[in-house]
Amino acid sequence: MSKKTRKSPQRKAADATAGPNPRQPCPCGSGKRYKACHGAGDDVIVLDPFRDLAAAPDLIAMREFVPSALAPLTLADAGKKLAAGRTAQVATVLPNASAALVRGNGEALIGMQVQTRTGDISTDLGRALRWALTAEPGEQLPVAGAALGDPVRLQDLLVADAPLDVTVHTDFSWWLDPGTEATPEMTATLERANSVIMPTDLVRADGVRSAYWTDTGEKAHIRWLRPEPEDRLLPALARLLAREELDLGEGSRFVGAFRAHGLLVPVWDVDKEMHVKEWSAPAEAFANRLGSALVSLDSSPVTDAERRARDSIIGRQVTLR
Length: 321
Known about the structure:
Elements: H1 9-16, H2 56-64, E1 69-72, H3 77-83, E2 88-91, E3 100-102, E4 108-111, H4 121-134, E5 140-141, H5 154-157, E6 167-168, H6 184-195, E7 200-202, E8 211-215, E9 220-224, H7 230-242, E10 252-260, E11 263-270, H8 280-296, H9 304-315
Parallel strand pairs: 2-4
Antiparallel strand pairs: 1-2, 1-6, 3-4, 3-5, 7-8, 8-9, 9-11, 10-11
Helix pairs in contact: 7-8, 7-9
């Protein structure tokens, strides 16, 4: 039987500079081994690209279904060094679906609703943000890809525990650079973009974040991106369903949930005649019920009725349209 040999100091030093161990968990936090994640190249799909970012729920909403919104980004030290005093914002979509642009005043903007160039949306956005923090005013980046240099993720450039302060807009007038007049071409572009916006707004209340009300024409919905891990959130939702407490009050109906980039998103149909502000109190009450249900999971086991409720929720697959 062969004996294990100790590594020489030279071997240890070489290992320390060789990069992540292919057999160890990937630094991105996906839970996969490095060789099966970022160590395999840009084609690997990362299912939870915004992991460990407090901004994750709103970043996902801005990518998937919020039509027009802006939010300032809180840059970490690495981002600040690139920016040299420049500010940055994330946008739902930029003119021509660009990956990034720099306003005349030097402000950097990156777009969420862009064509994905790698399997990791965070890498695409990180590259776009790095470009925007150093590009000249007036420049525009059509797409972000490997041509922009070594991979950099949003997690490398942003403060992890900083949430987004999202401002939802009713149109795309913010596309215009402040102090400039729209050309006939831009006016036409704005009119086309504005014509397809579905009324959308945040449900604002204490303890309520990332809950978005939308009027699709035939119906109105509230889609609430939850930060909790699915293995915690599902049994808590099931506990409320078993108690018939999963609605948002009168005029609402829980219709199911969908998964988006690592998070579970419960969805309710709501009375479209009610203003979004009228859902603030019901949403706050639900947030309190859900918080209590999450806490109770640590001391009270899941019942048979709650297991059946959980299966019912899993069976209600909601499709984004």
